[in-house]
Amino acid sequence: MENLKQQWSNFENELDQFEAKHKEYVSKLEEVESMKKKYSQEFIKLKRKFTDIQKTAEELETKKDQKINEIGEPISCDKEKSADQDLNLISEKINEKLHYMRHASDTFPRPNGLYLKIILGGISVSILNNEEKLNYKEEYEKFKLRITMISLILSFLLIFARSYRTLDAAFNFLLVWYYCTLTIRESILVVNGSQIKGWWQAHHFITTVCTAILLIWPDSESYQLFRQQFIWFSFYLSIVQVLQYYYQQGCLYRLRALGEKQDMDTTIEGFQSWMTKGLSFLLPFLFFGYFWELYNSYALFKIAQMENCHEWQVMALCIIFLILFLGNFSTTFMVVRRKYSNRISDKIKRIKSTYIALKHLRSFSEKAKEKNL
Predict the structure, then answer these.
(1) Is 55 exposed, middle or buried (0-12, 13-18, 19+ CB in 10 A)?
(2) Which of 185, 200, 197, 204 is nearest to 136 (CA)?
C-alpha cells in the first residue's frame, strides 16, 4: 500500500507539471490557428496582386516581341531601350519571387475541391508539414504499386482459370475499390500541391464507373464473349503500369535533383511533357494500350448487335471504352506534339535572333566603313 501511495504521489506531481505544459501547448495551438487564418487571407490578396503583375509583364513582353518582329531589328530608341531594360529587370524579379510564392502557398491550407467536399464535407485535408506531405505522397505511390502487382497476379491467374463468376466479381470489386480510393487520394494530393493534370484525374473517375459496370454485368453469353479479352487487357495494363511506375520514379528523382520538378509531383498512368526526357520509349506501349481500348469498344459494339444480347452493360461499356481511348490518345498525342513543336519553334527563334544580330552587326560594320572612306 505504501508503494502504491508513493507511485500515485509521484504521478500526481508529474501530472501537475504536465498540465501547465499542456495549457501552454493549447495556447500555442490557438495562436497558430489564429495566425494561420490571418496570414492566409493576407497571402491570398498578395497572390492576386502578383498574378495581375505577371499578366501585365507577359502582355508587355508579347508586345515587345511583336514590335521586334515587325521592324526586323532590335530597338534603337534610348527611351524604348530604357523601358525594355526595366521590363527585363521586373521579369527577373518576378521569376525570383515565383519560387517563394509557390513555397509560401504550400504553408497555408487550401480549399477542398468539389469531390472532397461531397465526400468529407468541410474538413480540411491540407497537410502543412512538408515531411508529412512527402510521407503521404510516398504512401500513395506504394499503394498504387501494391494493388497493381496484385491486379497483375490475379489477372494472370484468371487467364488460365475456368470462368467462375465469383472470382471475376472479386477481381472487379478489387478494381472498383482501387479506383475509388485512388480518386480520393489524388484529390487530397492535388489540394496539397501535386500537379495531376485534369484528364488523368478524370480518367480514374471514368474507370471507376467502368469497373463498377463490369462488376454488376450478369453472367450471360455476352459477358462470356468479352471476359477473356478484358482479362488479357487488364493483364497487359498492369504490366505497363508497373513499367511506368519504376521508370517514372527514376525520372522524377532525377528531375527533382535538377530542380525541374516539385517534391509533390507523382507518377501517372499516362504521358506528360517531362517524360520526353528519357521515357519516350514507353510511348509505343501506351499507344498499343489505347488502341486496345478502341478494340474493346469495337468488340462490345459487335456483341451489342447480336439478337440474344439484352444487357445494357454492353453498350454502356462500349461508350466508356471509346471515351477512354479518345481521352488518353488525344491527351498523349497533344503533349507529344506540343513538346516537339516547342523544340522546333525554339530552334527557329534561336536561328532568327542570330540572323537579326548578324544583320545588325553587318549594317554597323558597313556604316563604319563608310565613315572611314
Answers:
(1) exposed
(2) 185
